[in-house]
Specification:
The chain is built from 28 helices and 63 strands. It is an alpha+beta fold. Among the domains are: 269 residues, Beta-galactosidase, Chain A, domain 5 (Distorted Sandwich), CATH 2.70.98; 280 residues, Beta-galactosidase, Chain A, domain 5, CATH 2.70.98; 92 residues, Maltose phosphorylase, domain 3 (Sandwich), CATH 2.60.420. Strand 6 and strand 7 form a beta hairpin.
Length: 1141
Amino acid sequence: MMVSGNIKMNNSINEILPVKSIEKIYVSENDVSFLELSNSSGLTFKFFDTGVIYNITCHSTMINLLHGDPFAGMVSCLYIRKYINGSYLYHPMIGNDSASIFRISENAAMWSGQWEDITYSCKLKLHATEPSWCWSVEVKSTESFYVDVVYIQDVSIADRARVTDNEAYISQYIDHKIYDDEKYGPILVSRQNADQSIDSQPKLVQACISGAQGCLTDGYDIWGTCSRTTGQIQSFEKDNIGCHVRQYEMACAAIQSEKYWLTPNQKINIIFASVFLADNQSISSRNDCEVITNISDWANAPSSNADLVFQGESKLNWPIVQSEELTDSELKNYFSLDWRLCEIENNQLLSFFYDDDKHVVLKSKELLTERPHGHIIRVGESLLPHESDICLTSWMCGSFISHLACGNTSFHKFISILRNPLDILRTGGLRLLVMRQNGWECLGVPSAFEMSRSSCRWIYKLDDRVIEILVSPVPGARTFNLTFKVLSGSDIAVSALSQFVMGATEWRQQYELEVENVNSAFIVRSIDVNPINLNVELPTYRVEYKSRNASCKYSSLESWDTLSQVNNYPHHVIESMPTTEFQINFTVDSLSECDKEQNCAHNNWSTVNLNSNIQHEDTSIQRLNDIMKWYSHNALIHLTSPHGLEQYSGAAWGVRDVCQGPVEYLTSINRYQEVKEILRIVFAQQYYDSGNWPQWFMFDEYSTLRDQNSHGDIVVWPLKALCDYIEGTSDWNFLDDLIDFTDDITFEKINEHYPLLYHVKRTIERIESEFIQGTCLIRYGDGDWNDSLQPAQKELRNKLVSSWTVEILYQTLNRLILVLKEYGHCSELVNHLESMVRKIQSDFQKNLVCDNVVCGFAKIEDNGQTEHLLHPNDNFTGIKHRLLPYTRGIISEIFTPSQAQLHDKIIQEKLLHPDGVRLMDRPVRYSGGKQNIFCRAESAASFSREISLQYVHAHLRYCEAMAKLGRADALYHGLNIINPIGLNEILDNVNIRQSNSYFSSSEGDFLDRYQSENEFEKLKAGEIMVKSGWRIYSSGPGIYYGMVVQRMLGLRFYFGNVIIDPVLPVHLTGLRWSHDFMDCSSLFIYKMKNDQSLPQTVRINGTLIKATRRERNRYRYGGMMIPVDTVRDLLQSDNNVIEIN
C-alpha cells in the first residue's frame, strides 16, 4: 500500500480476526424486504423498517424526487412547530429524527411520539382505488401556545430512471401553480412538462384540507443555503413560511397549515391530501383543484389504526460540526505563499488564489453561494478517455469523495453521488465523523477549503483542535488517498462513512465485500452481471486504511444501528481509535499491473499547457491567466471524463461538442496527435447506410450506446474538426487512413474499412440529401445548436431551415475546398463543392435574409413560399432577433461587409446585456408547458440553462465574431465578463459564485418563466441579479482557452504557416506571454499602436520580419503569415523573444 508520511500500524485489533473472510453480500433494492402500502391504482409507498419512506411510485412513475435512506432519512416529512418566546421551534413527526414509534398495517401507516410537552400522531392512508393519499395529524399538549404543521414533499412525477439521471434537470420541467381556495387556502398543482415513457404529463395536486396559510415549491426557499452548515430549515424561522412559486432545481412542496392556539389537553386535527393524475396532458388550471374537493370526505373519514409496531428512531443522526473562522495569522500559516485576487464582500474576505493553481474558499463564501463549491479530480496518463482512468468529485460541504469511478462515470460508480445541492440528507459521498464531548459529529462546511487542479484540502478549526483533510492522487499511480490529520490539539477518534454503488445507481446492484484483516483492507466486487453490457465486467475496487499509533477497523453501518431490523445495506464504516493521522487508500483492483503503474497526467499541468503565463500590470490579465489554468482542467474533464458537477450523468461525447471545445483546446496547446485520434473515433461513428452521425455516443466497451438520431447540423461538425486538424498540420496522408463505419441498426463496427476521404464524400452526400428541394439550404431536422428549440411539430423538421446551420455549413465547405485543393487527387469533388457553396450563398441571401437582416429560421413551403421566424418581421413568435446566425454570419464570412456591420450593431443594441449576449431579444413565450413550436423552450418551467438565453458557449462565439471584425475592446470585454474570478468587481448584478469553475450559463434570478417574460428588459438594464448555471461539463472551457490563444493573442498554424493576428486592446500594450512555442521556451511581447491591433512587423530574437503575406479576412486586414520553416530557423532552444509590433 502506498501511503504518505510515516503512519505506524497497530495490528492488535486484527490479531484475533481471521486473515481473510467474505464479509457478506450487500443487497440491491430487490433484496430489501420493504414494508409497503399500496392500492389498486398502482400507488405504492415503500418503507424501511425505521419508517423512512424509500420512494412513492405509481406504476413506472416516481412521485418523490430523492430516495429515502434507512440511516439518513428522507426529504418527505411532517413538522410540528410551536411559537415560544418570540421564535418558532420545530420537530419532525416522522422519519429518523423524530423518535417516533412507527406502525404499519395493510391499510395505513402511523407515527406517534412526544416532543417536549406535545403529544402527536401522524397517520398515512391511501385511497382504495385512486392514486391519492392523505396525512392525518393529531396534536395535543399540556401547555398553551400557537402551533402549526408543515408538510414537506419532494416532487419528481417522472420516469424513475430519468429522475436518478439528474434530479435538478427533472425539477426544471415541473410547472408549479398555486391557486388560492376560499376553503382550503393555497392548493399546489405540479405538472411534469417533459414527456415520460408512459404517463405523458403527470400532475400532483396537494393541499391542506384543514386550511393552509403558506406554500413553497422549491427546496432553496424551504431550507436555504445556510442549511449546509446548520442543518436547519431556514423558512421555519418565520411566522409564515411564504406563499409563492419558485421554478428551480429542487422541486419540493412545503404546505403550512393554519396557525392554532393549543390549550392544555385540547386536541387538534390537521389533514393534508395529495392526488396523483397519471396522464393529464392539459396544462394546469384552477379546475385541477377540484380533485381535492372530490376526496375531502374520504380524507376526513376516520380509518383503522396501524398495528405492526417498529421503533422508528435511528441513532445515526449526528449534529454537524460548526467550524470556526480562521484568523488572519492562521490563514497565513495554513496558506503561506503570496495571495492574489482576493475576493472581498462587505469588508469580509471570501476567497483568494495563491501558489501556481491553488484556490482557497472560506466558510463565509460557501454560505453565500447558491451552488456548493465542488471539484472534479481525474487520474490518467492520456489526454483522451481511457477505461482505466479514475475520477472523483469532492465537495466543500463535507462530501470528501463522491462519484468515485473507474472508466465510465455513469455505469462504474463506486462511491455514491451528492444528489442535492443543499446536502439535506447528507448521504452522497464519503463522510467523516469525529468523536467530541457529546458524541459523534459530522464534518460539514470547513473553515477553509483549498482546491488545486489535482487535490482538495479542508481545514476545520474547532474549539479544541485544527483538523486537515486532504484528498489527492498518489504520484505515478491510479490511486487516491484521503488523509485525515490533527494539525493542533489532541488525538481524536474518527470514522469514515460511505454508501457503495458498484454500478450506475444507488441500491441497484448486489456486490460482495472481502475483508483482509491483516492488511487492514477490503475488496469490493460486483456479483451482478452488468445490466448495461453483459460482456463488460464491472471494476473491482480495493480500499486500504491505516491510523497513526491507533487501531482501526472496518464494519458495516447497520452494526452501529441496533434498531435496524435488516442487515446487508450498502453502507460502510471505517472506524479509528483516537489518532492524529488516519488514511484511506482507494484503488482499482481489477486493473492490470501495467495500467496501475502508468505515469499519470495529474502532475504535468504546466507541461500540458506549454508552461503558459500571461503578464501585464492590468489586474484583469492576472484574472485571465489564473482562469486559463482552471479552464484547461475543465476542458480536459469534459474531454476525458465527460460529466460535470451538476450534470453527473454523461460518460459520452456529443459529436458537436467534441468537435469544438476539445479540438480547439488541443490545437491551441499543439496536441494535434490527440486531435487526430478524436477524428478517428468520431468518423468511426458515421453510419454506413445513411452517412449520418448520432447526436452522442459512448466509447470503449459501451460504444453501442448512443442516440440513433441527430440534429440537422451534426453532420457538419466532423468536417469542421477535420479542417482544424489539417490546416494546423498539413497532414494530407490522413485522408488516406482507413477508418471504420458503424452499422445503422446494430451500432456495431462493420467489418470493412474505408479511407477517410470516402467518409468525407459520404458526408457530402448526406448533406445534399437534406437540402430543401430546389435549394442548397439544409433542413433543420431535429434541431440545431440550441437544444431548447427542437421543433414541436413533425412538419417543421422538414420545412424549417436554421440560418445558423446554413452558415456553419457554408464556412466548413469553404475550408474543406482549400484542404482538398492542397491535397490534390480530387478536382471533381472540389469543383462540385465550389458550385455548391456558390448556390448556398445565393440561396442564403435570397431566402434567409430579409430587409438586410438574417432570420433565425425560415419556413419554406413546397411551393417556395418563405416565412421568416425570429426576425424583425416575425409577428408569430414575437421574437425579433436571434444571436447565433448573427455571429456565425460574421465568422463564416457569408455576410457582406455592410451586413456584418449591421448585425454587429444589432447585437450591441438588442442582445448585449451586462453579463453577456443573449441568444434572443426575448424569451420564447411560456404557456404552462404547452408545446406549439419549440419543445424545451416551451416546456421548461425554470428560467435556467439555455432557457435563460445567456449560454456562455454562444457568448464565446460572439467573442470570435468580434475577433473576426478586429474589435479588440469588445473581444476582451466579452472574455472578462464570463470569467468567474472577481466577476463581482466588474458587474454590479452578479450573485456570488465559485471562482475557479466554468459556468455554462448566466441566469437571470427570476422566480419563474412569467416573471422573466414580464421583466426581461430589467435584465438587460442590469436591474435583475444573475447567477451561475451548471458547471464544467461543456465544450466552453476549451473554446475559451482556444479563443485566448488563437484569437486574442492571435497565434495559430495554417497550412505550413504561423499566423500572428493578435486582437488586443491598446491599453494592454506591453503584454508579455511566455510559453513553449514550437517546443522552445519563448516570450511574446505585444506592442499595439492602435485598436485594430494589426501587426506590421515581428522580431524573432532580433531578426525583423515584415508583413508581406496576410491571412484572408473579408472584413479587415488579416494576420501576418510567416512560413513555419522561417520561424523554426530563427528560434533558439531556449529563451526566445518574439516582439509583435
